[in-house]
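Action item from last week, closing it out:
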Amino acid sequence: MQQIDFTVCERILSSRWMLSILWNLQQPQRFGTIQARLSGLSRGVLAAQLQELLNMGLVTQTKYLGFPPRVEYCLSEKGLQLTDILGQLPEALAPDPA
């Protein structure tokens, strides 16, 4: 199992869009589909955020030949590990029952 650096978690949690992008990549998604699901996210910001997630090793990119060319983004193993951890936060942060 790969280790996830704390600075990666900090960067994702402090970003306005990264966490939402990660949640939308549970299944392979095309760029336009991701953008359509995240209202208010510009093409430029999405492209920059996806590139950063690719550089962090949290997302993979698959290019398909053909016309028109197609690119899909999906979580890597490291990205799946991180989303599993982040998915536990609501339960961990829930108030104790009185």
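Closing note: The mean pLDDT is 87.
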